[in-house]
Amino acid sequence: METTNLQPRFKDSPHFKDFWTTGNGKLLIDFSGAEVSLKNFDEFSPYFYHIDEAGDQVVKDIYFTKNFREASKEIEQYIRNGVSANEDIPESIKKMFSQTQTIPHWLNYDLLKSGAELCMRANLDSLISLRDYCLIGGYDFAYLNKPLIATEALKKGAVKRLSETLDFWVNVTRYNALELHKKGYEFAIKTRLIHSYARLSIRKHYKNWDTENWGAPINSWDMMATYIGFSLVFLHSLHKLGNTFSVEEEQGVFHLWKYVGYLLGIPEKLLPDNKKQATELFYIWTSIQPPADKDSVLLAHSLLNESLENPILKYSFQRRNLRYLHISCTWFLLDDEVCKRLQIPEVSNRNAFPLTKRFMNKIYNKVVSRKQRIQKGNKDQLKVLRDYLSITDSSNFH
């Protein structure tokens, strides 16, 4: 790892203090029972400059020596058929797949199943949580977004970005998805290499990258924060929307994302086992993140306006209504101060939909069996994914 004298430079800033004393950070502490402090800052701060060297070397050896189609086909063969130590292939392939094919001693398949079941059982609340809390809330951390800006994610458009995130999330949260050579495992490996490809491209082409302040592009510490979004923040959002879950389901969500993180090459030290650990790790990380900047606002508004651009809904009034519902959920799930920084528009009766949803969830969870909720959630989430893929895979969609 590179060494630097990184400090918790925003620990005395209003945005940091407000978040952890009166905002969602305070709610996360209450939710998790965490005991937050910066005493372990020096233990974790070097990961701001740490990267997945194994994944980067695979990209250099495979993607940078062949055309993209050939390279992708070769990687797919390794993913689906496995790699052995005596094959005549690049050492980087052997090294990375030796790690991903090694089942960690802590892996518990029953917990993976419980985590997947909660992701499915929460149905569209899962997708609302990912979009209106995890994703848009992440835009408030200005440095975390710099790789998106550097890779010109805004030009690609929010519909495409959302489709890719949804495709990844759905495919790693189904039954048995993360078994070796299965679809979720494949998505994890491909996502790992996309991160490496993007990181190497940023280092080559983006001359204004500020490593001292922003960390290494797509560094391990930022990856930890992202996956805490998929676990801790996701669960907190479901809780806010009136969903209940068992201790095993909660542990299962953390276990599932710990294993996804392991496959993605995130150091195990950065992968929390529970909400208490996750909150304490998240607290330390936020101390080096400034509040939203102009890039954050652009990303947030691109996501909000995705509903207007998305042709899944036929009529413009439907799209405007969907945008209103997402704005309402964003105000409900995020701090008011975060929403103001991201310049989320004010809308009338903004709590009506989230509060109604919370009330209906409490009834629905009592009258419909867990098995039925899992089946319906899986079906509805797959339909949303198919709808997105049908438009983003179309050559007519720009």
TrEMBL record:
Domain ER-bound oxygenase mpaB/mpaB'/Rubber oxygenase catalytic: 156-359
Pfam families documented for this protein: MPAB_Lcp_cat
GO molecular function, one term: oxidoreductase activity
Protein name: DUF2236 domain-containing protein
